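Reading a protein record of the kind used here takes only a little practice. An example makes this concrete, so a full record is given next.
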Amino acid sequence: MGFKRLLDLIIAIPLLIFISPLWLFIVIWIKVDSPGPAIFRQQRIGLRGEPFTIYKFRTMVPDADRVMKAKIEQLKKEGKFNADEFVFQEKDDPRITGSGRFLRKTSLDELPQLLNIVNGTMSLVGPRPEVPEIVEQYTPEQRQRLNMPPGVTGLAQINGRSALTLTETLKYDVQYVKNWSPGADIKILWKTIFVVLLGKDAY
C-alpha cells in the first residue's frame, strides 16, 4: 500500500466515525430545509478517465443538476459552449438552499466524500473531481491531471477555490500531478485547515 492510500485511510476512517453525530444533524437539517434527498450523487471522472459517483451533502434544489446539464447541452448545440467561461457556481446562485449556503461556506458539504476516499475512488489530496462535460474539452496537457485520483482538496482549493477560472484550476491540477510528493500532500492538508476556517472564496 502506497503512502497516499495509507494516509487516506488513516485519516478518513476515524474521521467518518467521529463525525457521525454531525452527519445525522446535517441530514435532518437538509431534509427539513427543502424537499429532496440529503445526499447529492453525481458522475465525475476519476483516475485514468474512469467515471465514478461522487457523494456530497445536497446544497441546491433537487433539479439543479438537471437544469445545468440541459443548459450545457443547449450551448453545445449552438456552438457557444466555452468550458472556461461557463459559470458552474455563482456567489449568489438562486439554486442554493438556506442550509446549502452554510454548508458550502464551511465546506461541510464535502464530508460525504470521505466515503469516496474509503472506497478508493478519491483521495484526500488531488486534482478537482470534474464532470464529464468538462473532461471532454481537455487538451492533452490538461488530461495529465487524470493520472492521479481526484482529491477532496488540492492546490486549487488552497489558492482561490471558487474564485478561480477553470483554466486556472486545471493549471494548478497539472502542476500538482507533475510535482507530487508525500510532503506536498501534507503541506496542502495543513493549509486546507486554515482555508476552511476562513471560509474564503467558498460558494
Summary: The first helix runs from residue 3 to 18.
